[in-house]
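Entry type: protein chain
Record version: 2
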Amino acid sequence: MKRLFFFLTALCCAGSLLFGTGKQEEAPEPVKFGVLLPAPVSPWTRALYWEAVQAAALASMESRGGFEFRVRSAASSGEQIEQIRELAALGSGWLVIFPLDSAAVTPVLKELHSLGIRIVAADQGLTDLDFGWAGVAWDHEAAGTESGRALALEMRNSLLANYLCLGGAAGPAEAELMDAFFREMEKSSSLVNILGGRTYIPTGYDPSTAYREAAALFRRFPRIDAVYCPDDDALVEVLKAAEEADRSDIKLFFGRGGSRAVCALILDHKSRVDATVLHGPSIAGEAVRFAVSAATEQEGAAFHNAPNARTIRIPAVLINRSNADRYAGSGGY
């Protein structure tokens, strides 16, 4: 009997070691991601938001509770900075951000980086390259080069001279793109930027701002042959302003984005829209997927401890009448 008692006691002890005491072990804390985007006020920014939310939802589901996402959108850099601090206070170990104003948010992000928070910038880079953040961006230099080369060629072939430039949001990515654009335009001495030098009017991500600026410029300058627009949503509004101002003298419009609406206009031979460059909202989803992959892999977040930033470039594609049908359907946004 005594042997049986010791046997049962030993068996119970072994059982408690093997199977525990019946209490469930606490699940590990999820990896928390904060995603910061522009306010969804246009087709492009709405699609940008959707791409990010879709990528976050899929990653959350596949992680089985291992990843947690909070998505925020802001209409101003001040609001975005408040959201950055809020997400950090909520314990986010990763911030994926599409900066509204790179210069304004960079010092805040650098401060959080020093506290161990991983930073991934979508499309628009940060102004300080001397700390370890990662960028996922369209190839802005190539996009500017392709746009400038195509517009310059078309203007020369059509014996046109004067062009007007509207730009996107202020930041290093936009500066890189516009510098490349102007380098190509300046190769032709017959082409003249009516604003002078490398001047362009920044309109941010708000098509209504592009409309107002274009309307004012159309009243101010009597001779404009071509207009370069910062994105395809802005281009649609600039076309509206041109029609209202009866500016049938403007022969060419170039965009950026690859929207289905603008691709359809490119295919319409009665339209004055000649080309655009692929700069789609899928970049937000790519940035989220990069952050998830880096958080999953053991060495994936090595960029955080690097002395300099690293950026993954997505190739630029010129969209004109030769390939616009590919993007006028499901290929565009």
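Comment: Residues 54 and 275 are 29 Å apart (CA to CA).
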